[in-house]
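Tokens for chain A. Residues wanted.
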């Protein structure tokens, strides 16, 4: 082969597109072949020219193959080429290598202009496949609208990119530009720092997340995923950086929407307060969804009632319940608690009233609020878009969520409108649950308070003040109650109780127990006996309860009776906390009382404890909601706090009702977990000169002596107008005691706002009022007593019974 043919072959190969492709051979071995092998064949198919790259490919030098038919170099000539001089334009064959093995090559042929010779170009098949696959991959990547491929030189100027000039789809680079030409200066500097590090170190960067803004749209942020690697020449010297910018903005927005939906599910609905729920809903929307947010509710929803259905403009009876952020500069007409002004009958308003989420532009919103004169009052500054979503649940439109976007923020999109529908649906259910709870809670509190006695009483035995605070959680009231019941002989019964359960059922049970205690108190039973009777009633109520609810009927109760004449207080407890006694000197302590079982446990005895009380002492009865703050709080510590607070607050010059309210405010949380009840009783005493005693001899003649003694006593007290009826009453009561009772017997007169006449004997026989026949010689005594006294009765004690009567004193002392 002559030198000219060899040079011509090299030149032809170069002009045919030698690219210098190099790469790893099979198994990752780096091939020494760095180009296309080229040979020139004459018209007989013999080798007429052989290049250096052909020698590198086959190992044969030009002298060894010159003049030889090219068929001799082919290891497995296809059948269609045997016996023919025709050369196909392209194909794939296996060539012999000088080392004895074969090489799989892909070739192409072309005729040399003005000659019968053929130029054959060949390359290892795996090189050709790599080149084809790489080109296909590059074309596929270049066609992806979310992927920008950019080649940057060593100065980080863009040399080549698949981004189309003038596009506004978020691609960060264009050919011939620097990143700072199209991106925000700070974002461009951050990206170039990453690319410069890749260029200097050769360490690639894979999937580096970066937030960027375009230079001409600084408010709109794009999420980019950057991957970059260094470009090198054949000697390994850096020539630039190849970068792939993947636009993850849509994926980021989708993730944010999912995060927002999750936050709404987690944060909205945890409270049963309507306003708190509305505020949670507004807070979660800012700034994740909008720049400003408000929640407006129908006025009836605040009270727990269902809103009325409305269509068209006018006063929609909406009031603002929540604003976010609270620190924002809101227009003067938008404040928490403000009513929403009347609106125009706008088509978008109609769409909202039919349950659709609507988006208003600034002009639409101005038309809706009635004209430009209200813009400053009702439109946030720089607001350019507002989305309004109805809070629709169970067929009721409870209100609306209003979200504004201001400044350079993006307008609302369709997928955000869909997201708002989901958020509004969940928020509406949460607000409706809070509304229904508010209604039930208010009904239970109203029932509970209607069943409680007057907050204050003023009796000869004591002045009292009761304070009740319903629970701020759960299903409403817990059935706590207190009572102050005036008893005969100037005595006073004090009651505090706590029913098991919550809501209206607990209030109803409380009402039944209070109604049962009052007639039992009028029977003047001892505290332990009264609690035994009430425990039997609770057992009957439990038996009447629906199947499965027997265990939820129960209560605790403390019952005390104070006698201002003896200045003694007898009390018994059915599983209830002990009362606290505050003495006139300001010292306070819990009364040492042995509690019996709760009222739901029947068959166990109760024990009466009796203590002496000085006039001016304060006895505090309460329920456990005042001393128990939860599982982490010690009840003994709560009782100590109450005792200390009572010692400080119960001052003689301070009204009891004021003291009670102050104590509840100091000791109870803002949203108490249980009802809290406090009954304060400041005791009084009947002076010794207002009582008189006379021992009754067991002699019928003593009746006249009793009349004379009582007459002298009434004259001494200045009660001359009561002499005649009192003589008859004393005569009849003393006669019954002598005739039917057992000694010892005693007559006692007590003067206060009434005149009390008591006759006590050791017999337990119950007197009975009846109408005597005309022929009867007796049986008219109690009938006369009932006619002369305002009221009369009989009470039993441990050592007998007492029959008493009361007469009003016109000008009490």
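Reply:
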């Amino acid at each position: 082969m002559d030198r000219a043919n060899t040079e011509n072959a090299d030149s032809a190969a170069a002009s045919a597109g030698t690219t210098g492709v190099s790469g790893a051979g099979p198994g990752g071995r780096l091939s020494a072949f760095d180009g296309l092998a080229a040979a020139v064949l004459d018209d007989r198919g013999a080798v007429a020219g052989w290049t250096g790259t052909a020698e590198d490919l086959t190992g044969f030098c030009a002298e060894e193959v010159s003049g030889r038919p090219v068929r001799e170099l082919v290891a497995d000539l296809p059948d269609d080429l045997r016996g023919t001089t025709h050369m196909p334009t392209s194909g794939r064959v296996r060539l012999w290598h000088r080392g004895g093995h074969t090489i799989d090559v892909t070739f192409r042929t072309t005729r040399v202009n003005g000659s019968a010779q053929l130029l054959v170009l060949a390359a290892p098949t795996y090189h050709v496949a790599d080149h084809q696959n790489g080109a296909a991959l590059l074309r596929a990547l270049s066609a992806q609208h979310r992927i920008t491929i950019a080649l940057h030189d060593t100065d980080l100027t863009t040399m080549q990119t698949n981004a189309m000039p003038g596009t506004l789809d978020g691609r960060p680079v264009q050919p011939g530009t620097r990143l700072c030409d199209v991106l925000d200066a700070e974002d461009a500097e951050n990206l170039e720092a990453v690319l410069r590090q890749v260029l200097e170190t050769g360490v690639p960067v894979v999937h580096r997340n970066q937030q960027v803004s375009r230079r001409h749209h600084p408010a709109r942020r794009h999420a980019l995923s950057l991957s970059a690697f260094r470009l090198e020449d054949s000697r390994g010297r850096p020539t630039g950086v190849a970068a792939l910018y993947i636009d993850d903005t849509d994926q980021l927005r989708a993730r944010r929407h999912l995060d927002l939906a999750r936050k709404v599910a987690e944060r909205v609905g945890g409270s049963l307060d309507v306003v708190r729920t509305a505020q949670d809903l507004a807070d979660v929307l800012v700034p994740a969804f909008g720049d400003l947010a408000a929640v407006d509710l129908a006025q009836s929803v605040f009270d727990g009632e269902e809103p009325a259905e409305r269509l068209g403009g006018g006063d929609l009876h909406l009031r603002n319940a929540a604003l976010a952020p609270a620190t924002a500069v809101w227009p003067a007409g938008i404040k928490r608690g403000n009513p929403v002004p009347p609106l125009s009958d706008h088509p978008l308003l109609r769409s909202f009233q039919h349950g659709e989420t609507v988006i208003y532009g600034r002009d639409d919103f101005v038309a809706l609020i009635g004209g430009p004169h209200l813009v400053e009052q009702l439109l946030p500054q720089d607001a350019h878009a507002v989305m309004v979503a109805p809070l629709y649940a169970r067929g009721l439109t409870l209100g609306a969520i209003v979200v504004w976007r201001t400044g350079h923020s993006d307008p609302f999109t369709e997928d955000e409108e869909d997201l708002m529908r989901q958020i509004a649906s969940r928020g509406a259910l949460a607000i409706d649950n809070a509304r229904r709870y508010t209604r039930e809670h208010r009904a239970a509190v109203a029932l509970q308070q209607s069943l409680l006695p007057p907050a204050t009483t003023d009796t000869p035995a004591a002045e009292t003040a009761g304070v009740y605070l319903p629970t701020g959680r759960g299903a409403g009231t817990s059935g706590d109650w207190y009572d102050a019941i005036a008893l005969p002989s100037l005595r006073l019964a004090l009651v505090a109780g706590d029913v098991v359960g919550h809501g209206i059922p607990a209030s109803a049970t409380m009402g039944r127990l209070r109604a049962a205690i009052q007639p039992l108190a009028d029977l003047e039973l001892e505290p332990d006996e009264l609690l035994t009777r009430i425990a039997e009633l609770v057992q009957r109520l439990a038996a009447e309860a629906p199947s499965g609810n027997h265990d939820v009927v129960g209560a605790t109760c403390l019952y005390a009776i104070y006698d201002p004449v003896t200045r003694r207080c007898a009390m018994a407890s059915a599983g209830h906390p002990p009362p606290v006694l505050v003495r006139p000197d300001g010292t306070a302590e819990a009364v040492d009382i042995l509690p019996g079982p709760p009222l739901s446990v029947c068959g166990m005895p109760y024990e009466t404890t009796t203590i002496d009380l000085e006039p001016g002492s304060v006895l505090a009865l309460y329920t456990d909601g005042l001393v128990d703050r939860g599982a982490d709080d010690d009840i003994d510590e709560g009782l100590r706090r109450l005792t200390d607070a009572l010692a400080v607050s119960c001052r003689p010059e301070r009204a009891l009702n004021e003291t009670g309210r102050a104590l509840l405010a100091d000791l109870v949380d803002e949203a108490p977990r249980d009802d809290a009840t406090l009954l304060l009783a400041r005791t009084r005493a009947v002076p010794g000169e207002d009582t008189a005693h006379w021992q009754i001899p067991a002699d019928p003649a003593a009746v006249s002596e009793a009349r004379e003694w009582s007459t002298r006593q009434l004259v001494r007290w200045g009660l001359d107008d009561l002499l005649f009826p009192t003589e008859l009453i004393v005569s009849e009561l003393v006669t019954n005691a002598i005739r039917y009772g057992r000694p010892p017997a005693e007559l006692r007169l007590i003067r206060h706002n009434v005149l009390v006449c008591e006759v006590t004997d050791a017999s337990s026989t119950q007197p009975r009022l009846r109408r005597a026949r005309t022929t009867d010689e007796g049986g008219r005594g109690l009938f006369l007593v009932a006619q002369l006294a305002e009221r009369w009765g009989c009470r039993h004690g441990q050592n007998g019974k007492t029959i008493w009567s009361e007469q009003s004193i016109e000008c009490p002392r």
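Residues 1-34, 166-170, 772-779 have pLDDT under 50 and may be disordered. The first strand starts at residue 37 and ends at 41.
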